[in-house]
């Protein structure tokens, strides 16, 4: 079956899975290239471009019967006019865990073109937003877009602790973890490698350390076990699905925070037999469930409408199984809040947030998938709202705490609640960032100004205290 795979990535980096022997890859980073009279890749314009026009450049025998579009929050690859293509059309949703309006932008794109199937691989936790927005035939297919790995090498560790991946400014938490390992004297070796070189490094290490960018199920969660490596990675929220894929303590090892990372890395390095046993179990699990043959068989089943594996069904996630679609304006407000908190979560090591007063159960449930965010509601929250939250989350993901318990990193409240709590003086001592549940009137605007709170330029859903605004501005200037 002729396949066209449209992607924003350059050759050698996150190459698409091979779905057909004669597959054509196109995108803004792909060159025009052919081999023995057949096109292998096409260069397209950056951003929006007419995909039907690009297909006209292909020989008749290579016109696709299946088109897969990989789109992410960079917006570098947004082909349009898919209605003009006589082929089945699949959207593979890339990163939605960072950048500006990542979830809302990809929801808009998914709804703007006639996709027959929409897939998430990295960010299962965001599926419910797509469902609530009315995106149809949505599924989670973990491991689908991982670079096709070579066969696992014989495990002969010649290195101790390694990290393979990016350490740019957006990887704030990852850099903190590297610094913690170095401060503890563990001296991880750092590599920037792709393609065949990365699996070789994982196979040659006693332990491969990983840290997600922002609570996402990144590629190393599959790549390290696939290479026969021992993976030590950060614990994600249950909604992300990591513990559906692999069993902690058997197939991989998890850590919460820098202290536990150092402790577990040191223990594995001191016990290479245990590290080897974890690597062997992870490799066996990968071969059983997430090798290309298994993943592509599941893809084919989804494409044919037969459904995927039961363990991957989004109906297992209560937030993605709500009985009705959200009102568009209310969903937009929830998304704006979530995306703002998600961006602050990317930058900060840990956060505590209080939803005060008549807290919205859906907003509370939205936020629990950020693994370093502690979500609380006030003790006086009505019982129906408490019950609604409990139906959507797992036990312990939302706690009950009075507003006076601490200074909150983020406070979500109405202007009336703030005024009753003490106005500007309360606001100045109560939180570092404020999310207003209603549009501020003149009195509320004056209260914010008196406390020195200003809208965050990048995420206007949050108002920042003077000290937090200064911290974020300094961080932006350093990037």
UniProtKB/TrEMBL annotation:
Pfam family, one: Glyco_trans_1_2
InterPro entries referenced in this protein's UniProt entry, alphabetically: YkvP/CgeB_Glyco_trans-like
Spore protein YkvP/CgeB glycosyl transferase-like domain segment(s): 192-294
Record-given protein name: Spore protein YkvP/CgeB glycosyl transferase-like domain-containing protein
Species, as recorded: Hypericibacter adhaerens
């Amino acid at each position: 079956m002729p396949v066209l795979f449209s992607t924003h990535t350059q050759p050698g980096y996150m190459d698409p899975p091979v779905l057909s022997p004669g597959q054509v890859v196109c995108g803004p980073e792909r060159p025009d290239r052919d081999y023995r009279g057949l096109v292998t890749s096409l260069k397209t314009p950056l951003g929006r471009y007419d995909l039907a026009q690009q297909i006209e450049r292909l020989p008749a025998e290579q016109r696709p019967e299946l088109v897969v579009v990989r789109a992410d929050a960079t917006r570098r690859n947004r082909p349009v006019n898919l209605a003009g293509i006589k082929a089945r059309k699949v959207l593979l949703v890339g990163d939605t865990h960072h950048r500006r309006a990542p979830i809302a932008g990809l929801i808009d794109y998914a709804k703007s073109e006639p996709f027959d199937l929409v897939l998430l691989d990295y960010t299962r936790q965001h599926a419910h937003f797509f469902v609530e927005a009315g995106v149809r035939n949505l599924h989670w297919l973990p491991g689908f877009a991982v670079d096709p790995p070579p066969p696992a090498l014989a495990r002969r560790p010649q290195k101790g602790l390694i990290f393979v991946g990016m350490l740019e400014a957006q990887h704030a938490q990852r850099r903190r973890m590297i610094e913690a390992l170095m401060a503890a004297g563990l001296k991880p070796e750092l590599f920037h490698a792709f393609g065949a070189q990365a699996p070789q490094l994982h196979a040659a290490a006693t332990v491969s350390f990983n840290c997600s960018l922002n609570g996402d199920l990144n590629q190393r969660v599959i790549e390290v076990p696939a290479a026969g490596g021992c993976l030590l990675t950060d614990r994600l929220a249950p909604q992300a699905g990591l513990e559906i894929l692999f069993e902690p303590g058997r197939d991989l090892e998890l850590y919460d925070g820098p202290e536990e990372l150092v402790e577990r890395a040191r223990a594995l390095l001191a016990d290479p037999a245990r590290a080897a046993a974890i690597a062997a179990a992870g490799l066996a699990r990968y071969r059983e469930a997430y090798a290309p043959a298994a993943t592509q068989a599941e893809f084919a089943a989804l494409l044919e409408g037969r459904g995927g594996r039961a363990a991957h069904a989004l109906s297992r996630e209560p937030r993605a199984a709500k009985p009705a679609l959200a009102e568009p304006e209310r969903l937009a407000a929830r998304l704006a809040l979530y995306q703002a908190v998600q961006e602050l979560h990317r930058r900060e090591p840990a956060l505590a947030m209080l939803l005060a007063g008549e807290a919205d159960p859906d907003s509370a449930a939205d936020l629990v998938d950020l693994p370093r965010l502690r979500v609380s509601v006030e003790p006086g929250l009505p019982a129906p709202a408490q019950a609604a939250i409990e139906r959507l989350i797992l036990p312990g993901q939302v706690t009950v705490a009075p507003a006076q318990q601490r200074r909150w990193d983020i406070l979500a409240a109405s202007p009336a609640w703030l005024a009753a709590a003490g106005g500007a003086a309360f606001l100045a001592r109560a939180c570092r960032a404020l999310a207003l549940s209603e549009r501020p009137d003149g009195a509320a605007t004056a209260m914010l100004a008196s406390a020195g709170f200003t809208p965050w330029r990048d995420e206007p859903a949050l108002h920042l205290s003077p000290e937090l605004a200064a911290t974020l501005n300094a961080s932006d200037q350093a990037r």
